Amino acid sequence: MSLPHQVWSMDGYYKGRRVLEYRTMGDFTKGQNFVQHLLPHPWAGTGHVVYNGSLYYNKHQSNILVQYHFRSRSVLLQRSLSGAGYNNTFPYSWGGSSDIDLMADETGLWAVYTTIPNAGNIMVSRLDPRSLDVLHSWDTGFPKRSAGESFMICGTLYVTNSHLAGAKVHFAYHTNSSTYEYTDIPFHNLYSHISMMDYNPRERALYTWNNGHQVLYNVTLFHVIRSDG
């Protein structure tokens, strides 16, 4: 998160380096008034996040996390996420090198991934944004390859059961109590192929990349999830 109305776009999930920074959502939808950043290292997957003026992303063909600072146009930090699978070892159901998914919510910076010792189950780790140290980790027990996508809200990880039409929010893991529950909440998958899903705590909205379309879901969805959870 940085200025309240900025939007960043990263096209593709394989070896990309070009990040477009738009001043407003309106500029993004019109494809105008943007600044280009060329990353020194290519990315893997679609699980990137902008947090406090920096882009955090997974370096291509590795489990290394990179912090790129927009204002200085420089890499501030690189750090391995120890044991995390990469290069389609433990992706979401749609593949796309989605092994490591970085996200931010009201409580901080998170990594969603898995390891061989965890038998492919989703791990959630809270990260220190200044050092990328793992502060705490939780084994959710949910197989990552069975998940379509996931997102964090207020320390709870919500997981969909598919990336295709008919997807539902099927599972929730609460890090504050280390408990989980199965849910049955229909999710309107408008274009039938979700390859990115992230919650924006500032806007209280869910942003998705859906079969080439950028789709925003408003806060009403989250009230439904939390009241039915």
Automatic annotation (TrEMBL):
It holds the Pfam family OLF. PANTHER family: OLFACTOMEDIN 2 LIKE PRECURSOR (PTHR23192:SF80), OLFACTOMEDIN-RELATED (PTHR23192). It is found in: Secreted. GO terms for cellular component: extracellular space. Keywords: Secreted. InterPro entries: Olfac-like_dom, Olfactomedin-like_domain. Residues 1-223 form the Olfactomedin-like domain. This is Olfactomedin-like domain-containing protein. One of its GO terms (biological process) is signal transduction.
